[in-house]
Design a protein that fits this description.
The chain is of the alpha/beta class. The chain folds into 2 domains: about 120 residues, Alpha-Beta Complex (Aspartate Aminotransferase, domain 1); about 220 residues, Aspartate Aminotransferase, domain 2 (3-Layer(aba) Sandwich), CATH 3.40.640.10. The protein has a 7-stranded mixed beta sheet, sandwiched between helices. Helix 2 packs antiparallel against helix 10. The chain binds pyridoxal-5'-phosphate.
Length: about 375
């Protein structure tokens, strides 16, 4: 006997990037930050008095909201804290789309979107990216024609690392008649030389929500803390109705607040990631990969299949061979990506080990 709703029975769950138990693996497959969280985060954890856990946490994570509002130059009412970015995505879908409604996304992008849409029994309209991985010129018109209630854009884009400008995003949001989610999970890795800032959009447009997460830029994927930035009217139904009453716990609130306050430390880590990103990109390009320019903490690289020692070494075989050596990168067995690997930028030492392994496998 199955008790699930029909759409739950028929849907596929999310497939995680491998999360091995052993720590000796070089893990370049799920875009985690290679550097530890700020020392202030460790201090905040030490400062937690277990006796405080007797009480419920602040329901709106107001200390965190205050720091985030200051950082972004918005009001506290423009910030909502969530249990990871994934909770924010789920809240957006369950708050703004009915069963049977259409949700839209650029394809390829974050594979959790279709899963969350299926849970809500929504239809997913996938709009293919151009050959250069840019959005089609008429993207907003396509969204409106599909009747989408919600559309997702990842910026910088995953898995390609490509960046849309804030004016381009504004144009889409102005035309689109639904809620535009700009998923900025990787925004911290954009070079400061590029003056990208989409936050002002939420002051002008009531249908835009930005997703920010502590998982990538602040090295806190294990904590589960993220936040949305949007107009007060867009956040209100989620803040006051659809969210769990205490959706973020006390310890997470304290640690996330400490991390967000430690801007100097975070900026230093981002710069180290960017330095390694360019070094890794040119080394991979020297090894024969076609490397896409990336504004994120990963590189999408194309590997032309070739014969090595009498065997065909294609991207999948290369992924498997690296895995056998304890180096995990991401391989997507899907159209347009099956000749590519997505490689998270690691520490200098991790990247060198990866490069050495590829040289060995490719017989160079
Ligand atoms: C990592 C990521 C998120 C959010 O992750 P959380 O760990 O749940 O905060 C959202 N979107 C994309 C595209 C991501 O890569």
């Amino acid at each position: 006997m199955s008790y699930e709703r029909n759409n739950i029975r028929d849907m596929q769950g999310y497939s995680w990037g491998e999360q091995p138990r052993q720590s000796r693996v070089i893990k370049l497959n799920t875009n985690e930050n290679p550097y530890p969280p700020a020392p202030e985060v460790a201090q905040a954890l030490t400062d937690v008095n277990v006796a405080e856990l007797r009480r419920y946490p602040p329901p709106f994570a107001d200390d965190f909201r205050e720091v985030a509002a200051d950082l972004h130059g918005v009001s506290q009412n423009n910030i909502m804290a969530t249990n990871g970015g994934d909770e924010l995505l789920r809240l957006i879908i369950t708050t703004f789309a009915d069963a049977g409604d259409t949700i839209a996304m650029a394809e390829p992008s974050y594979s959790l979107y279709p899963v969350l849409a299926a849970v809500q029994n929504c239809k997913m309209q996938r709009i293919p990216l151009n050959d250069d991985w840019g959005l089609p010129q008429d993207f907003a018109d396509q969204l409106n024609a599909s009747g989408a209630r919600i559309a997702f854009i990842v910026n910088p884009h995953a898995p390609t690392g490509r960046l849309l400008s804030a004016p381009e995003l504004a144009q889409i949001a102005e035309t689109f008649q639904g809620v535009l989610v700009i998923d900025e999970a990787y925004v911290d890795f954009i070079s400061p030389d590029i003056s990208y800032n989409a936050v002002p959009l939420v002051k002008q447009l009531d249908n835009v929500i930005l997703l920010r997460t502590m998982s990538k830029g602040y090295s806190l994927a294990g904590l589960r803390f993220a936040y949305g930035i949007a107009s007060e009217s867009l956040l209100a139904p989620m803040l006051f109705k659809t969210r769990d009453s205490y959706n973020t716990d006390l310890i997470s609130q304290r640690l996330a607040t400490a991390a967000l306050k430690s801007q100097a430390y975070a900026r230093e880590c981002w710069q180290r990631v960017r330095d390694e990103r360019s070094r890794l990109a040119s080394a991979l390009s020297d090894l024969g990969f076609d490397v896409l320019p990336s504004h994120s903490n990963f590189l999408l690289v194309t590997w032309a299949a070739r014969q090595v020692g009498g065997e065909l070494l294609d991207a999948n075989a290369l992924y498997q061979a690296l895995k056998a050596q304890g180096i995990l990168v991401r391989y997507f067995a899907q159209p347009r990506l099956q000749d590519k690997l997505r490689i998270t930028v690691g520490t200098q030492e991790e990247n060198n080990t990866l490069l050495q392994a590829i040289r060995g496998l490719a017989g160079q």
